[in-house]
Amino acid sequence: MITSVNFKIPHSMCDRFGNLSLRNLVGLMVETSIIQAQEAEKNIDTKNLRRILYCRDIKIKETIKAEEEIKITTMPLEMDKFYCHRNFCVEKDGKILVKAYARFFILDINRRRPIKASDEFKKAYSKEKAIYRPEKITYRDDFTNEKRIFVRNSDIDTNFHVNNAVYFDYILDYLDIYSKDISYVNMVYKNEIRDKKSILAESILYDNQIDFRLKSEDSKRIYTYGKIIKNV
Questions:
Q1: Of 86, 113, 168, 170, which shows the fewest CB atoms inside 10 Å?
Q2: 145-230: same fold as 3-124?
Q3: 3-124 has which CATH code?
Q4: What is the pLDDT of residues 46-80, one digit of tens each?
């Protein structure tokens, strides 16, 4: 099952350089997958189920600018054990600008635990050929920089935790970089940020790469970690 949605990028979604922000790029990808899910799952009872994102992997060939018209395509890959896998492709005039991969699991909100996708769920989505698979990544944890980040009320979504797209704002603000500076970003979500006034960000820069993580101030909980590769 392949779903494509056309968008015209408003200035309000762009940064000071007129480029679509990473947070809003991710938001448009999510919107595309929601449109697909509404069609695919229209006959499935999902009221007690939630999708929980585990990781994102985004390869950026070219930044997207204000007023550009783009097409975002999403396709489900496989559902193995507890994980569901999905690709995204962003195009302009037939040229691929961004490829992305996402892995998530389905949560039973009553039992607060992941569940395997049912046969009914699998049947609703055809298995498509992958257009992008992330390579195996290693991460450093010998961080050299640290900063406290304050959590705003506006960062909290309808699940009463910090929306996972907001993590991009936290990291990019902390690192003082923009979409135009980035050719690749990977982010793994380990724990939700809930009922926190502030958190800590850590990072290390090496060989044009930045490894980072967000953690609790007492260092007992890791919220996310990942890698950014900067444009040369």
A1: 113
A2: yes
A3: 3.10.129.10
A4: 777 777 788 899 999 999 999 999 999 999 998 87
